[in-house]
Structure formats: structure tokens, C-alpha cells
Amino acid sequence: MGSLESGGVSFKRDSNNLIRSYSAGRTERNPFLYRPRSRLSRFLLFKKLDYIQWICTVAVFLFFVVLFQMFLPGSVVEKSELGFSPRRGVELINKDLLYLKEVGGLDFGEGIKFEPLKLLQKFQKENREMNMSFTNRTLCRFPYRKPQLALVFADLLVDPQQLLMVTVATALQEIGYIIHVYTLRDGPVQNIWKSMRFPVTIIQISHKLEIAVDWLNYDGILVNSLETRSVISCFMQEPFKSVPLIWTIHERALAIRSRQYTSSWQIELLNDWRKAFNRATVVVFPNHVLPMMYSAFDAGNYFVIPGSPAEVWEADTAKALYNDDIRAKMEIEPTDLVVAVVGSQFLYRGLWLEQALVLKALLPLLEDFPLDSNSNSHLKFIVLSGDSTGNYSKAVEAIAVNLSYPRGTVKYFAVDSDVSSALSAVDLVVYGSFLEEQSFPEILVTAMSIGKPIIAPDLSMIGKYVDDKVNGYLFPKENLKVLTQIVLQVISKGTLSPLAHNIASIGKSTAKNLMVLETIEGYATLLENALNLPSEVALPKAVQEIPPKLKKEWCWNLFKAFLNSTHEDIALKSSKYLDEVEEQWNHEQRESSGLIAATNDSFSYDIWEEEKNTLMLNTRKRREDEELKDRTDQPRGTWEDVYRSAKRADRSKNDLHERDEGELLRTGQPLCIYEPYFGEGTWSFLHLSSLYRGIGLSTKGRRPGTDDIDAPSRLSLLSNSYYRDALGDYGAFFAIANRIDRIHKNSWIGFQSWRATARKDLILVLNPAFLVIQTDIARTWSDFGSTVKCGKHKVTHNHCKMWQLHRSINASYATLVANASLSRIAEKALVDAIETQKHRDSLYFWVPMETDPRSHLRRDFWSFCDAINAGNCKLAFSEALKRMYGIKHDLDSLPSMPEDGDTWSVMLSFALPTRSFLEFVMFSRMFVDALDAQMYDEHHRSGRCYLSPAKDKHCYSRVLELLINVWAYHSARQMVYVNPETGLMKEQHAVKSRRGKMWARWFSYSILKSMDEDLAEEADSDRSRGRWLWPSTGEVVWEGVFEKERNLRNHQKEKRRQQSRDKQQRMRKKHRQKVLGKYVKPPPDEIENSNSTMSASETL
After folding, report:
1. What percentage of the chain carries pLDDT values higher than 70?
2. Does a structural domain hold residue 405?
């Protein structure tokens, strides 16, 4: 396994991928016990001497009895003491046991260690790359918004995982994260999240299992439990594959089921789960046992953040449900004092020996508990283990007999899950494992939570949380005599001492909030390493700056009302979910197999019917053709005429293709809005009306049953994944503009990003005078039209009505939602303005920069561009314009984009005349080529560019997103903002106010056209320029192209004429052979004479 270190020790079961316990027989574990027989014994056995066979059999039996007794722990303790070293865990001083260990009979778990090697190496590599600097480039960060996280749950029912995530989310919020909670099903915990000011959204899943959430709005996703598998499938689709995903798993159900899937050959179901594990950036487990249990799914992305309130939660539940029936089931009397010997969750082979030593040290306790009349002792010892499948109980019985424990005093119980119920029936817990674990043992947390005193060896991880004689007892692992002394102090006169009860009470309060610090700091550190934040996002505070009070305890006070109520068992709930998944999978398998069988039966019948009908039609047609053959004149012509007719028929057939309803409706409209998209994750945000038409940037992710445009088939450049990602929506612009008259026949053209449809501005209203915005930006809602006063804020009339409605429903919490895409009213207003030519040649846009979460209040254009491009937007523009226009010296200034109180367009959602769009594409192609020339080498080699602080495959897209504003402003186009809800329009940056500020000569059509023709002439020439992007972004057209095509056509026509003349000349000069002779027909009388002569000869 990629992220586990075995250290040369095998700790997996043969078929179950779990840690192997003492389940094999002694002969299997110690192969050296099979001694070869001597020649004398073989001679005696094979000679069939009855008395000698009997004597030998008895001797061999006694030999094995002595050998078995010699290697039991009891005899070992009698012979010598045991020594321990911190490096090896348990070192056996006795020579016989040292030999036993050397031959491989035992191991003591030294190699059991989990290290996320691949994940740590990945984080280190990314940190090194982040610290690398570009030559003459400085990467800046603009803290305009806080990092945003999405917490995804299967439900909001009350369980310990909700308690953990509420505690973690509260701490993350303090260091600068903004958190949004999503859930598939509602529950009581929704009120807790809302009381902590976390917005909660219940995900609506359509009948096609589509989830309409734009996950690109978040810098990271935290998914919890196995039941969120349906949500993870969204992140396995584009464009959400690159979103950092952290999946927390605390259930064991799937790890156990995976072995059943393997044995029952359900490999497809197993692979389906593997895909989900592979998609996660990090898979987080709360302990070090679960990663090993889930080893079948490990993709090198496992990580452990120790600590969970689950043990305390389950202990409280078990204590509330405890009764004497538990002791009765365990065959323990109410008056018995019970000591539990527990061990590590890792069932290594030497665990039985360690527990045997502990039982040896506890043996003096029997002196204070004399036997009753039935030879029973009121002191009971139970050994708890997680191995329910092996024969560990036989080993415990053998140890008890060897140590001379009275019969029935030592018992073994296998507990796989319900540890709390078993521990609630005991009085004292002794930890009998000397393995140095990486986190505090969960079984001790459970025992302390129930209020049981614990005695444990002074291992480093245990000593970190347990103080001797304060909240527990510790004994040195080198000296087991101290354990005997502690036990005699804890149990006096047949009961627990008052000091032990006091220590147990303190231990219970300690366990209630154990490892909260490690959990919170673990999640904060993981997010710090796993997230690659954009340049406009402020870095969160350091982990050390989390307030200490938040790291002291779980948020028990928020769940106080639910602690005494009964809740569904987590393991049972996970098992039910896996049953549903298996049932659905089996149903799909049965459906597919049944469909195939039914298809095969009907398929053969359909083929026979079709063949029969075809044969009848062919026979009838042949008969009709034969009848009409002699009645009609057959057309005559050359093979060239036949070939031309066939080609003409093919062309006419292609021209008469059937047009769907959407295409027919768009024909009569002045405007068609295209929606570029990439991947199945965007389908739920695309429109289906005739005003819109999708354009897929990838052939694989196109919507079925629609007339969407396949961009790669129109522009082969988009088949290259590098440019498809780097260009973004501009790839769709270039694909549409390439021979645009073949697909777009409307006078106006528009584009709308699917993210505009998905985006919602969510506002939390806490009181009439205070607004807390999701993006944490104090933003004024203005529609550039009629506004009203609502509290102390100026918003639209509709917004104020919605706000007042929510205030009347809930005075402490209300929401205000507004889409960024065009509403039906706005669509009608836009079409009417185009038809009436209200603004003539204008650029209409409906997503203003002020509503963008990346914008900080009312920043100017270039500052906003720098913020989203690591502070290098102006540098990129300057270098691109220099290369584009061939300027040798440095530019002193950039095109002016004044801050005059008006807004700019973002998210590439606009509409303009088709003719103007082609002019814009002509300018964009040259700009993109200049931008690519300066960034391609570094970006293609390392994945990094100076427009982003981290690796980013969408390097160019953020600069290109704002390019439409520069072109429209300096080409003297009117810029009109359309309110996406009301349809109200207002001109921005009036043309009259731009006089003296525009770079009109740089952006004039004549200049751009001449530059385009020069590039086309160069591309059409034979001169080699090396790698060059411009010819691949669209048509290469200049005046010489038409002349070349005309000359080519004339040359082909002249060639055909010459071929025809040559053919005629050959026919004229064709050599004809002279006639060798002529046949002369004899006269009729000679024919008659010859016939009569022949008949006479025949009669003779």
C-alpha cells in the first residue's frame, strides 16, 4: 500500500486485509516444533510392533506436553524477569523466548505504523513550487475576499460527526474561512448551524441525479461519511474535477463489505468505490486503524487526524442504556468485581504474550477473594479483543490454566463494535499492550468516558494525556511488579478504593474533551497545505492564532438538548446505506442482463421480418423494371456525366437535412445567445429555450438530444486539452467565428457563462441595520435603475420586499437570493431593444463587476484585473500589446479605463451585433497569440505562469475575461448594462465622456484588418515561423488567398480542358486496321440446290 509502512511485518489477515491475530495453531506459528523423526523411531513405527508403537506414542505425547508447558508465559515468568526497551517495545530476556522471536514465531507490532508518504511528498513539492519566483516577476496577493469552504453532509441528524464538524467549523471561521453547509436531507442540527451563522442549503437532486451547485465558487470541499457518495460523483465530472476535495470517513462498514465484494466477484461495485476514493484529494480518518482496514481502496491519499467525540458519545449512550442484563449475558454475578484486560486495536501476534504477563501480575489479587462453597471466586477477569473470527479464546484459556487461575475466573469476549456496553459491565480496566501507538488508544477513551479507572503502561502517547494518580494509573513497562502494587492499592477489601473512584471521575472529565486540540489543528493544517488559493483570496491566519478556548472542548453546549435522546446507530445506518447501494447495483445488473436477453429474442425475429419485407420489395421492383425496360428510352451519356450527377445528388441530400424545432425558431429571431460549457457538471445550468444554444468545448461532455455545437469539430485547436483549458470561453468564441455563416444566421450574437446562471448572491440579514454578506464584502445592491431605502441600505424594490418577507418569517435570519443570469423579463427587454435599434451598435452586458465576489468594494478596472491575476495583469497587457503591435520600446501607459462611477462587464456574459463580434474576435486572436507567445514555454513545461500564485491550467482565462471591456471602450462602442432581473438598461461610460481618453487608432477596424491580413499573408507563405498559435485560432484570409484560389480553379479547369483536347486528338489519330476480306452472300438458287443435295444424301 502506497501510504503504509510495513516495516517487514505482515499485519494483514490472509483474506480480510485486517491485522492478523493469534488465530493460527501453535504448530502453524512455530514451524520449528515439527522435529524430524529419528531413524530408530521410523524403524519402530514401520515394523508394526504393537508394544513398541504404544510406548513410542506415549513418549511422543509426553514430549509435546513438556514442550508446550516450556513455552507458556507462566513458566517463562517463573524462570526469569522480562525487560523492555523503548525502541523495540517488548524485548524478551529469556533465551528461549528470544529464540522463539528470532525464528519468527512472534512479532510485537514494531512495524505497525501509518505514514502518509505520498501525500506528504505532494505537499512538500507544492510548497517548494509556491516559493519559487519567476524571473523579473513578482507575485502579489490581494486580500479582497476570504477563502470559502463547503461542508457537505448526507443528513443533519444528531450524531458525533456533526458535533466534530461544528467544533472544527467554528475554529476555522475564527481564522478567516467562510463556510457554507450543504446537506442531502434535513435534520435537527440545521438549527445549530444556523445559530452559529453558517448558511445551510438542502441540495435538490433532479430525476436525472443532477446536483445544481456551482462548486467552483468554493476553494475547498469537505465531505463527510460514506453516504455522500452521490455528491462525490459530481466531483468526478468536469468542470469540478480540479476542486480540492477532503473526504472524512469514520465508518467501518465499507471496509468489512469490501471483502464480501471480492469473494462474491462484485468487482464492478468495488471499482466504483475505488473511483470515489481516487477522486478525493485527501481521505481523512479519525484513527490509525481505519486506513489499514481500507487498504483495498488506498490511492496514496490517506491522512489521519486523530480525535473524535464518538467514543464519549457512545459511552454516554451505553451508560444510559446500561442494566444488569449485560452482566447476565456475560455470566457475571452482580456482586462480582470485574477487571477487564484490554489491548491495542492492532492484533499483532505477540499481543497474547503481553496480556499473559499482565494476567500474571494480576494473580495476587485472588488472595483477597476466597472461593465460595461452589469453588467460585467473586473476582472475575475478562479479556476483551476485536478478533471475533480467530481462536484467541483458546489461547486465553490455556494461559489461565497455566497460571493456575480458578476455572471460570478468566473469560474471553470478542467485541467488534459494541465496546461501550462490555466496558460498562466492568469495574477496572487494565491496558495490556506495550505497543507504542501513534495516537491515544480509543478503548481507553471509552473506558474513561464511562467512568472506569484505568491502569496503563507509561507509553509516550498514553503519558501525554494521563497523569499518574490524577486521572489514571501508570506503571513502568520495564517492571510489572509495579502493576501488582497499583492493583492492590486500587482494589482493597473486595471493592474499589475511594481514591480510585475519584481518579475515575477526573478521568471521565478528561476524556470528554480529549484530543480536541489535535483535531482542530489537524484540519487547519491540512487545509493550509491542500488548498491552492487564488491571488484575490486572503490567506487564513496561522494555526497558532486559533483562540485557545476553541481548542479546549467540543461544542457540547450546542448539543445539550439532544444528548439524552435516542438516536439511530451509526454503524446500522451505514449498513443500511450499503444495502441500498448493493440492491440498486444488483437491480441494474439484472435489468441489463434481462434487457440483453429480451433484445436477443426480439432481435432475431425483427431481422427475419425485415429480410422478408426487403425480399418482397426487391422482387416487385425487379418485375416492374423488367416491364418498363422496353417502353422507355434509356438515357445515354458519358461516365463523367454520371459522376457529376451522383455528386450533385450527394450535395443536394446534405443541403436538405432535417432541421429541429430549436433551429427553426432561432431563424426568425434577431439574437441567439450561446452558452459555452465543458463537462456534464454544467448541464443543469444550461437553458433549453430557443433563445439559447449550447456549445460544448469537448466532444465527450456534450448534452444528448440537443442541437449543441461541437466546438472541437469547428476548431481543431480545442482538441488540444492545454488550449481548451487555457482559453476557456474564448475557445467557443473562436469556434463560432470560424466560418460563422454556416451555423449563425442572426444579426446579433450573445454569450452567457453557465456560472452566471449558477451564481447566487446570498445575503444573511441579522437585523434591519446590519448586513452580513456571504463573501464578507460590504456591498451596496443597486440595479442602476429605481432603488428604494430598506433599513439603512439602498436596494431594489423587489429586494426590499423579499427582505421584509424573510424578516417577518425569521427575525434573526433571512436570505436574499438573486440570479446573475437573464430573467424572462430581461430577455424580452433585451430582444425588444435590439429589434427597435434602441442603442444601435452597442455592447449589452448583465453581470457587473461590483457584484463579483472577487471585487473589493468599488475598485478601478486595472486594480481588479491585478487582483485576480497575482498583480501582473497590467504587465501581461503591456507585453501582449507590445508584441501584438510590434513596439520595440516599453509602453509608458496602458489603455485608459477610468473610474467614473460606472461599472464593467465580467464573466463573459454579453450581446453585440454579429459584425462587431467578428471584429472583436479578430482583435482577440492577435492578443491571445501575443499572450501565448510570452507564457507558453513556462506554463506548458511546469504548469505555472506569473498570473497565478499556484499551478493553474486556466492561466490566460482571467485576463481574457476582461478583454471585452478594453476593446469596447476604445473602439467607441456603447456599453449598456442590463439589470438581469428587471431588464432596466443604463449606458455606462458614455461615448462623449471618452473623448481624449480612447486609443482609437490602436483599435480602429482598418488598423486591425490590415494587421490581420499581414498575419494571414505570412501564414499563407512558405516561410517557417516555428510554433505559432494565430493560424490555429480561425480562418486565414487575405486578398492573396482569393487570388490563389482563383488561380487554382483556373489551373484545374485548364487542366481538364487540355485532357479533353488530348483525348479528342488521340481519337482522331487512332490507327484503324484495314478489312482483311468481305463475306459474299450466295444467290438464292444456289442455296436451294445445296439444301436439296444435302437432303438427298441424308436419305441415302
Report:
1. 73
2. yes
